[in-house]
Design a protein that fits this description.
InterPro entries: Aldolase_TIM, Methyltransferase_A, RlmN_N, RNA_MTrfase_RlmN, rRNA_lsu_MTrfase_RlmN/Cfr, rSAM, rSAM_sf. This protein is an alpha/beta fold and 360 residues long. 38% of the residues lie in helices and 19% in strands. The chain folds into two domains: 72 residues, DNA polymerase, domain 1, CATH 1.10.150.530; 280 residues, Aldolase class I (TIM Barrel), CATH 3.20.20. The strands form two sheets. It has a ten-stranded mixed beta sheet, with helices on both faces. Helix 5 runs parallel beside helix 6 and helix 11 runs parallel beside helix 12.
Length: 360
């Protein structure tokens, strides 16, 4: 317990961090250090995640002294909404400004089964995928767990007005989640906690572009959270062209780590496969992909690429999309074509942030 207290103190030393960063046990440790009973953690989590208050003064069953101490130590929400786009299909894209002036994106998508929120894990990205707007300008910094959690809460507050709730969360926004591993795991534990947002593990998905060492770490966590890999190519040559991360951790090493993940967790993997016209979208590529993933318990999610003006890739022809899907199905691969959403707004990851930056 003493070690945990020191960690919590170190995290908040010299700055007013978001209270959303604290896991439940961290908060209990902080309260104990402050001379408060541990049951106060239940009350605070109730106010934060059930009532979704935005001021500590609203926590009326806490003493004034404790509310003042909380207020002087933590902020509640570190986000300020600066832009919002709504699609005709119900997709909402939000641009938030952080306390240091950086901006991030969050997307709320409406499905038949409920509302899904796609969150950002970093300000920018260092990995340089050649099809992605998120990497324009490089990596500025990692987000704290509380800044990721705040995106879900901001989305939930907007849904509260409609009497709806967040039913699932995907960590597929700006940044590489496994490049911010510690804060990612903290975020997952807060939103999954039954006193937090209580979003079931199987309604949470984390996607990586292939940071191989962290795939092994994630497997060893043995979480029930869904796991997706941005694959986008059936060969190491094509993948290196699309995704520079493949030069650090080539396709064969990536596939070894995925096999380890399955052996350790016995869970299915989703492969995200963006289709880029004339690059990776032909029948021969589908056959190579089927051979690559043969024997794995997996699902392939085909994604017709959203055009990003700063990039040169073109959209795959409709007939080629269906031919690709048909080839995979004939090879026994579980595959779907992702339903397009937000086609009439800045839907591509990082696009709204990039366009707002141009305006400034």
């Amino acid at each position: 317990m003493q070690e945990l207290k020191k960690e919590v103190q170190a995290e908040i030393a010299g700055k007013k961090g978001s209270v959303y960063t604290l896991q439940f046990d961290d908060l209990k440790a902080w309260l104990q250090e402050a001379g408060e009973p541990s049951f106060r953690a239940d009350q605070i989590f109730y106010w934060l995640y059930d009532k979704r208050v935005e001021q500590f003064d609203e926590m009326t069953n806490l003493s004034k002294a404790l509310r003042e101490r909380l207020s002087s130590t933590f902020s509640i929400t570190p986000l300020k909404e600066v832009a919002k786009q709504e699609s005709v299909d119900g997709t909402v894209k939000l641009l938030f400004e952080l306390e240091d002036g950086n901006t991030i994106e969050t997307v709320v998508m409406k499905h038949g089964y409920g509302n899904s929120v796609c969150v950002t894990s970093q300000v920018g990205c260092r990995l340089g995928c050649t099809f992605c707007a998120s990497t324009l300008g490089g990596l500025k910094r990692n987000l704290e767990a509380g800044e990721i959690t705040a995106q879900v809460l901001a989305s939930q507050r907007a849904l509260d007005e409609k009497g709806e709730r967040v039913s699932s969360v995907v960590v597929m926004g700006i940044g590489e989640p496994f490049d911010n591993y510690k804060e990612l795991i903290g975020f997952l534990k807060v939103i999954n906690h039954d006193k937090g947002l209580n979003i079931g593990a199987r309604h949470i998905t984390v996607s990586t572009s292939g940071v191989v060492p962290k795939i092994y770490d994630f497997a060893d966590e043995k979480l029930q959270i869904n796991f997706a890999v941005s694959l986008h190519a059936p060969t190491t040559e094509i993948r290196s062209r699309l995704m520079p991360v493949n030069r650090a951790w080539p396709l064969d090493k990536l596939m070894e780590s995925i096999k380890y993940y399955q052996e350790t967790t016995n869970r299915r993997v989703t492969f995200e496969y963006g289709l880029f016209g004339g690059v990776n979208d032909q029948v021969e590529h589908a056959k190579q992909l089927a051979e690559l993933i043969k024997g794995l318990k997996c699902h392939v999610n085909l994604i017709p690429v959203n055009h990003v003006p700063e990039r040169d890739y073109v959209r795959t022809k409709r007939e080629d999309i269906f031919a690709f899907e048909k080839t995979l199905k004939e090879a026994g691969v579980n595959v779907t074509i992702r339903r397009e959403q937000g086609h009439d707004i800045d839907a591509a990851c990082g696009q709204l942030r990039a366009n707002e930056g141009k305006k400034k």
